Amino acid sequence: MQNSDARVLIVVPAYNEGASIRNTLHNLLTIKQEIPALDICVINDGSADNTADVVREFKNVILVDLPYNLGIGGAVQTGYKFANDYGYDIAIQFDADGQHNADALQKIITSITEDDTDMVVGSRFLEKTDYKGALSRRIGIYYFTYLLLALTGKRFTDPTSGYRAINRRVIEIFANDYPRDYPEPEVLISLTRKKFKIKEITVNMKSRQGGRSSITPFKSIYYMFKVTLSIVMQKIVKE
């Protein structure tokens, strides 16, 4: 890491990612050679496959093996609790399925340490990238972009991106309070209302490199409704 002694924890929530987690960890460990202050923590979210066994092959990777499936919010919050308990300065959420590009980590860390930013979100749409997502996913992203714009006055080009970093102040908050389902859009409005500084930077992302997404079309509709209700209630209740 350049110009900083900050301790960084990469939080990798993983549910049935046995087909892709090995390559993801190889990529992260390659970056760790350039950023020695970086630790990698996989939260195995009650997987029914061999995810935990694969992670145990990597001696330099921390494994938190949850006995039950908590869902994405619970798994990510477990990582933030770990980061809080062990005094990390920065926590970065990183997908286990190979979609996130580890080469962007240095840029994300630098933005947190040098730009006095509380959260950095990796965006596929801030500038043109090679990302090719399904139409339904893009519709969902645009929907939350304009919903958050209407409620906060701030434009987030990629509000559903899970590639994001937070500093120590936000780690302490998220360790105690974090949404359970589809948390990414919710925390943007929560932090914005608390006057935290959020910044988007351009990152390239790939398609899932293995396994199967747990988000079905039906679940997507359910999550959109649920998250919309939660976001609107935050706006109503806290004003």
Secondary structure layout:
Blueprint: E1 8-14, H1 21-32, E2 38-45, H2 51-56, E3 61-66, H3 71-85, E4 90-93, H4 105-114, E5 119-123, H5 135-152, E6 164-167, H6 168-176, H7 183-193, E7 198-202, H8 217-237
Helix pairs in contact: 3-6, 5-7, 5-8, 7-8
Short description:
This protein is of the alpha/beta class and 239 residues long. The protein is built from eight helices and seven strands, in the order E-H-E-H-E-H-E-H-E-H-E-H-H-E-H.
Give the amount of beta strand, in percent.
Answer: 15-25%
- Class per helix and strand makeup: alpha/beta
Give the helix level as a range of percent: 40-55%
CA radius of gyration? 17 Å
Q: How many DSSP H or I helices?
A: 8
- From the N-terminal CA to the C-terminal CA, the straight-line distance is 40 Å
Main sheet properties: 7 strands, mixed
Mean model confidence by pLDDT: 89
Point out poorly predicted stretches. none
Count of individual beta strands: 7
Neighbour order of strands in the largest sheet: 3-2-1-4-6-5-7
What sequence of helices (H) and strands (E) makes up the elements?
Answer: EHEHEHEHEHEHHEH
Shape: globular
How would you describe this structure to a colleague?
There is one protein chain. The chain is an alpha/beta fold. Helices cover about 45% and strands about 15% of the residues. A seven-stranded mixed sheet has the order 3-2-1-4-6-5-7, sandwiched between helices. The radius of gyration is 17 Å and the shape is globular.
